[in-house]
Design goal:
By secondary structure, the protein is an alpha+beta fold. The protein has 2 domains: about 5-100, Alpha-Beta Complex (Ribosomal Protein L22, Chain A); about 105-205, Ribosomal Protein L22, Chain A (Alpha-Beta Complex). It has 5 helices and 11 strands; from the N terminus they run E-E-H-H-E-E-E-E-E-H-H-H-E-E-E-E. It has helices spanning about 25-30, 40-55, 110-120, 120-125, 135-150; strands spanning about 5-10, 15-20, 65, 75, 80-85, 90-95, 100-105, 160-165, 170-180, 185-195, 200-205. The chain has a 5-stranded antiparallel β-sheet, covered by helices on one side. Strands 1-2-6-5 form a 4-stranded antiparallel β-sheet, sandwiched between helices. A hairpin with a 2-residue loop joins strand 10 (about 185-195) and strand 11 (about 200-205). The mean pLDDT is about 95. Bound molecules: coenzyme A (COA). Belongs to the P-Pant transferase superfamily. Gsp/Sfp/HetI/AcpT family. One of its GO terms (cellular component) is cytosol. InterPro entries: 4-PPantetheinyl_Trfase_dom, 4-PPantetheinyl_Trfase_dom_sf, P-Pant_transferase_sf.
Length: about 210
């Protein structure tokens, strides 16, 4: 049962999470790509991510994916907007025919606490629930990674450019955020699910 979650966000946008139990050959036989990735597990994750795209939208033209200078994979024709994230044996993807999307899947781990001063501004640190500091900060990190991928042009200061509105810690929820840069000032809406030590966060067009 490798496809562990699908969400039809709206008629044009779908999200999926795949738990990898298959060998690389399973994906290799189903997607016609030849990634130049040496590390076997990273290559497996990459294959699974691409396979998830066609699982969500069978007409997704995998062979037309290009990679931008900032390393964002995209379709030049914009027929589908998409974002992929991997974490261990999990892969998440979001695909929309409407507009840009971003997704992140993240393990709750101590490192996030140690580096949180680098990605949370003082006003964001103020709303962190001290009783659930690590998972709350993990949601913030995951939300900002999803925003980073939504933007896709790189050069983002996580504290300055990605601004989260206060939200109360819960295992699932909504976040309102602002992407603030001279070339782009956009209100973004995010959702997250925290389950089994994994945080999934995404932003999609509204
Ligand atoms: C690029 C980045 C988002 C990848 O995140 P990660 O946790 O290493 O890996 P994930 O599995 O979540 O995501 C990897 C996928 O992101 C996508 N991706 C890579 N670069 C991207 C970019 N610039 N924009 C959008 N998507 C991107 C790709 O689909 C990639 O998977 P693929 O190579 O199999 O296609 C991350 O490495 C990064 O650079 N983050 C910002 C770093 C930063 O500025 N930190 C400062 C905070 S203090």
């Amino acid at each position: 049962m490798p496809l562990i979650r699908t969400i039809q966000i709206d008629p044009e946008t779908r999200l999926g999470v795949w738990s990898i139990e298959e060998q690389e050959s399973f994906f290799r036989e189903r997607v016609n790509i030849s990634p130049d990735i040496h590390h076997p597990h990273k290559r497996l994750q990459h294959f699974a991510g691409r396979y998830l795209l066609v699982t969500l939208f069978p007409e997704f033209p995998l062979e037309k994916i290009k990679v931008s200078d900032s390393r964002k994979p995209l379709l030049l024709c914009d027929s589908f907007h998409f974002s992929i994230s991997h974490c261990g044996d999990h892969v998440a993807a979001i695909v929309s025919t409407k507009a840009a999307v971003g997704i992140d899947i993240e393990e709750v781990k101590d490192k996030i606490e140690r580096v949180s001063h680098k990605f949370l501004s003082p006003s964001e640190r103020d709303f962190i629930d001290p009783r659930h500091s690590l998972p709350h900060k993990t949601i913030c990190w995951s939300a900002k990674e999803a925003m980073f991928k939504w933007y896709g042009l790189g050069s983002v200061d996580f504290k300055e450019n990605l601004v989260l509105q206060p939200f109360v810690y819960q295992s699932t929820g909504f976040i309102t955020a602002n992407f603030v840069k001279p070339d782009s000032n956009t209100r973004l809406y995010l959702q997250y699910i925290m389950e089994n030590g994994l945080c999934l966060a995404w932003t999609h067009p509204v």
